[in-house]
Design a protein that fits this description.
Elements lengths: L4 E10 L2 E11 L4 E5 L6 H9 L6 E5 L4 E4 L11 H28 L4 H17 L4 H11 L16 H15 L3 E5 L7 H12 L4 E5 L3 H7 L2 E4 L8 E4 L2 H43 L4 H35 L13 H4 L25 E2 L7 E10 L3 E9 L3 E5 L6 H8 L6 E6 L21 H9 L1 H6 L22 H14 L16 H7 L7 E3 L4 H7 L14 E5 L3
Parallel strand pairs: 3-7, 3-8, 5-6, 6-7, 10-14, 13-15, 13-16
Antiparallel strand pairs: 1-2, 1-4, 8-9, 11-12, 11-14
């Protein structure tokens, strides 16, 4: 079977929504294709169809026999041990070596057997492509570089953090080295060093790589082509080159679409008016009285005939345009902070219905203190979580935006959990009286996935708040998706909904764990620069990270407005 990956006219409908509509893709060995688009555009669905995990409603997929797929969710049983995952990853390489040994023994007994020679040659080529002789050494290197080298292989998957499970699944594929790799958000759980290692590994692969990602730096470093699944006038578009060039071309393409639609709508209006006017002219000719016929004569009949012909031509053109007209470009989904601006000076509201997202607001794990200085909201002194975190001093002040960086295992998530009051720690953790803090967790779980997005939002905020800050006004969930069940949303869309619930009813001080990447990261960064917003951010995307860490253009430096970078080095 060919090692190329071919998809033709894939159609997939989930619920009442057409997610993919006639998508085609061709990937030859050496192609590294990045799938990009808004959350819910169909990236994960396309990967699942390519992998054979789901079947399309129509269309065909031809895939290599040796294919690996990285899910956003761990594909192994939670009771399995790390050793079981590694044994599975090394199984094919070890089988190659065992089979080569068997064939070598058979050839020693029958050196002139042509069939054995051919079989040995095929297996040898396969082992060379997989680098089977180096598999065990490669496994050690991959585990070390992905921050798993010190984790005992006897540990079960259930005992690992979400990040460790994600890195283990990725490690298993890099160890296995299949002929085709399908990766869904592979950098979600990686620090910078691990991400760069994965980039090197993927660039060195000779087979097909198809990856869905929002990490611009990763896409630039790895991909030879980009396929944009966002709505376009002629369907998904394949781009060559870097992400920056794609953005420029996409902007130009959007402008052409808007211009083409506007010109066509103008022509439709003119044709409708022309048909109406000329039809009235024909009708107005009427039947002539005998006294009028002599004056009307042959010329008048010719004029009427010409008018009637123009009516028919205009009507045919109008029918064609109405049948084939270019659809209006959908409004781009961008986070819109304006509906929240009025909340900055509002007093605290009374308690509202419990949220559908876990974990909830901070509780008594953080002691209130009236002795905090100036605009300090949270203060940490000598905080320790044995084996996970050590902070001598950290103050969080009103208006600051904190970016927490560091390698895997340095304690970034632990620090945010301590700040949110969701994890007990040794030392002193103090907060300003009345301060509430929320944490946007990486693994978003909704208690009622059977409810619609609209119903979840309205029940979580209450009817008055949901009416004053409509979900559609935030630019986080598209209008076409508000009546989907939460369980039908993509992983990214569920994160957007969780973020919408948080920002629409913000606590007084909001450390948020990892705001999402494009397409709304840039407006979110602008929204986070108001003096009444507090955010502690743990980010994976290296491109927006530098923007967050920059002081505001045109603003004087001050304690309240300076971005702060807090690095954890273990």
């Amino acid at each position: 079977m060919s090692d190329a990956l071919l998809a033709r006219d894939l159609v997939r409908t989930l619920g009442a929504r057409r997610v993919l509509d006639g998508v085609s893709l061709t990937a030859a060995p050496g192609d590294r294709i990045g799938l990009i688009g808004e959350n819910g555009a169909g990236k994960t669905t396309l990967l699942r169809l390519l992998a054979g995990v789901e079947q399309p409603d129509s269309g065909t997929v031809v895939r290599p026999a040796d294919l690996g797929f990285l899910h956003q969710e761990m594909p192994f049983d939670s009771r399995a041990a790390i050793a079981d995952v590694l044994d599975d990853a090394l199984r094919e390489a070890r089988a190659d070596l065992d089979e080569l040994d068997r064939l070598a023994r058979a050839l020693a007994a029958a050196p002139d057997d042509a069939a054995l020679l051919r079989e040995y040659g095929v297996r040898l080529e396969q082992a060379q492509e997989r680098e089977s002789w180096d598999a065990d050494r490669r496994a050690g290197i991959v585990l070390d570089r992905l921050g798993l080298g010190g984790v005992p292989h006897s540990r079960t998957l259930a005992s690992l953090s979400g990040g460790q499970r994600g890195r283990l699944a990725l490690a298993a594929l890099l160890i296995r080295r299949p002929a085709a790799l399908l990766l869904d958000e592979p950098t979600n759980h990686l620090d910078d060093d691990a991400a760069e290692f994965v980039e090197e590994q993927l660039r060195g692969m000779t087979g097909v790589v198809v990856v869905a990602s929002h990490d611009r730096a990763f896409l630039d470093a790895v991909c030879t082509d980009l396929i944009d699944l966002d709505p376009a006038v002629d369907g998904p578009v394949r781009y060559g080159g870097r992400y920056g060039a794609y953005l420029a071309e996409k902007r130009a393409e959007r402008e052409r679409w808007e211009r083409r639609h506007a010109e066509e709508q103008a022509e439709l209006g003119e044709l409708r008016a022309a048909v109406a006017v000329t039809a009235r002219q024909v009708a107005g000719g009427g039947l002539k009285r005998d006294s009028e016929k002599m004056g009307y004569g042959h010329a008048g009949g010719r004029v009427q005939h010409q008018i009637a012909r123009r009516v028919r031509n205009a009507a045919r053109r109008l029918a064609q345009l109405e049948r084939e007209q270019v659809p209006a470009p959908p409004p781009p989904l961008r986070f819109n902070p304006r509906p929240l601006a009025a909340d900055a000076a509002e007093p605290a509201r009374s308690a509202e219905p419990a949220r559908a997202v876990e974990p909830a607001r901070a509780d008594a794990n953080v002691a209130e203190s009236r002795g905090l200085h100036d605009d300090t909201l949270l203060s940490l002194r000598g905080v320790r979580v044995p084996g996970r975190l050590s902070i001598d001093r950290l103050d969080v002040r009103r208006g600051e935006r904190l970016l927490v960086t560091g390698p895997n295992g340095a304690g970034k998530s632990t620090l945010l959990a301590v700040l949110a009051g969701l994890l007990d720690a040794e030392g002193e953790v103090r907060r300003r009286p009345g301060l509430t803090v929320e944490l946007l967790a990486q693994d978003t779980v909704f208690e009622r996935p059977d409810r619609t997005v609209r119903e979840t939002y309205e029940r979580a905020l209450g009817p008055e708040r949901a009416e004053s800050v409509p979900l559609s006004s935030l630019g986080l969930i598209g209008s076409r998706d508000v009546d989907l069940r939460v369980g039908e949303l993509s992983v990214g869309q569920r994160r957007r909904l969780a973020l919408a619930l948080l920002v629409a009813d913000p606590p007084r001080g909001t450390p948020a764990r990892r705001a999402h990447q494009p397409p709304f990261a840039s407006p979110l960064r602008r929204a986070g620069r108001g003096p009444e917003r507090r955010r502690a951010r743990r980010d994976r995307d290296r491109q927006p990270r530098s923007v967050v860490a920059r002081p505001l253009a045109g603003r004087p430096r001050s304690a309240a407005m300076n971005p702060i970078r807090h690095r954890l080095d273990g």
